[in-house]
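Appendix B: complex inputs.
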Amino acid sequence: MNDLRRVLSVARRLRKERLSSIRLKVMLPILVLFLPGLAWGFSDPNIVLPGGHRPDTAMEVLFYASLGVVFGATMCGVLMAFDGVSKDRASGMLEVRLAQPMPRQHQAAALVLGHAQAILIPVYTLLLLTVAVVRFRMGEWPSLGELVVYGLSTGLIVVWYTLFALLASTTAREQGTAIAFGVGVWFFFTFLWALVTTMVAYVSGVAVGEPNDPGWVALEGMLDMLSPNGVYHHLLETQLPTVDRGIAAWQAWLAALVWTVIPWWALHRRMEALVP
Amino acid sequence: MAEPVLTFTNVHHRHAVPAPKAWKPWAKQAGAGIHGINLSLYPGQVLGLIGPNGAGKTTLLRVMAGVLPLREGTVTSHENGFDRPVHDLRYRTGHMPEQVRWQGTMTVMEILEQLSEMRGHGDHHLGPLLTMVGLQGRSEEALDRLSQGMRQRLSIAAALLGSPKVLLLDEPFNGLDPVAAEAFASLIRRLIEKGVSVVISSHMVTQLEGLIDRIALMHRGQLLDEGPLNEVEKRLMLDGRYRLEGPGSMTSTAFLEPLRTEILSTASNGDSWSLTVRGEAEAVLDACKAQGVDVQSWAPVKPNLVEWLCAATGMSFDDISLDVASSAMVPMATAEVMEDE
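Resulting structure:
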């Protein structure tokens, strides 16, 4: 059995276990409300968003509905993976796994893939439903390119939060700490990042929250590169020609690469040093 | 004696323990661990790794299993007349950690298949293994539903995946009832017959009686003595000890003095007496008979853990027990050394 097959095989069993978990069944209604539910709302022909804006293309609706991914899918990723290592460590199963002659980096890869797949399968299924909802409500399909970018970006943001949660799980000795760290990171980037942006703008002398001020737009766009949620929105904005926040598509994809590689590398390092 | 399967030479491992500083809160330093371990494992033999809690038994087993890295020292295997360095111990050893609480919705078969895949075996022939450990009827049982005894069996099944030459068992009898413990011991005997080298750690020497061929005494991260059981007993002067018991009271033991017998303890409560001696048991019995002392029972006395440790360290029971409670895991030779990692 070659290394790749071994990683995929271990990931498949992990995915199967997680997919049948009660935890996922509890999260499913939340995902349904957040993904196709939001798309249903944003594709309402009479909707008027703050600022008098009306989404008039399928991709724009998908962009607004991505709020559901940021709030729901990422949280589900964290909740799915927060005990990916700590639970096995507490039960002693981690020691059994570490005693197997599979390189720890491969074990880390299997952990990431298994957990990310377990949350991405329902998320992608619901995203297809979301697209169908948009088509039903607006009579318009998003283009293939838009769909690919939407799917890829969503996959990436879920992988990032899964990585954060697994990293916390390798560090924490007990599950309470692991979940506190995972949820804390999610909370920071999802809710508190606006505060960080505001503070930096204030210190820089930029008018805070003024959507027509190019200084504010540029600063917000730049600071968003430091947040996984911000990078996710930058990636989606590559498909919205009307939006320009001073970040080129290649910069957004480069940031996505960095947000993938660094936590993955950190997880590998943690796994190498892991003591049962 | 057969050639050793694995030889560990001057093995060291010290745990990295947090030592936060104001300017470096993540700082760690070398803490407790194992120190200067030299050990050989032979095929078809059982080595009992004996020591009090915190002696370093689990650390040593984890190093042997390849779970913890070797900070210093070498491991070699003897193959075709040559000693070859071993780079990845995980291919040669099967490791059964202490009391794994197998949990989750996976079945027994599924978890074994997963571990088998982690060992690189795509084909699953796990039926005979499950039969060997007595889990053949439980293969579709979810892990959450297994009893403690079944979990121990699953742990040993996991350790036996890939037919390792060395089996490492960390406190395997913990939590087992006498019936399960006997079944477990019988399973270990079957593996020994197949030529597997087994290492069992325990702080209960009595559990290992009749099972181990060699003994390794550990204390404060160091190996105090190691070798065949009877040789170590003789070296530490713990061999040839007998307890005699009888009714009434024994007024004097002076008649035993000419026999060059060491009297270890005497006790009497008026109704009965007991005497523990080290020396020629038959001569003692003859002397008792000649003095008209009624001896009702006569049995060899096996040393317990405390006696082993006292004999090996030359310390008293009080010193040993206080020592165990305080700084048990700091290697004796390096107790004062604490350097940054």
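The domain at 241-300 of chain B is CATH 3.30.70 (Alpha-Beta Plaits).
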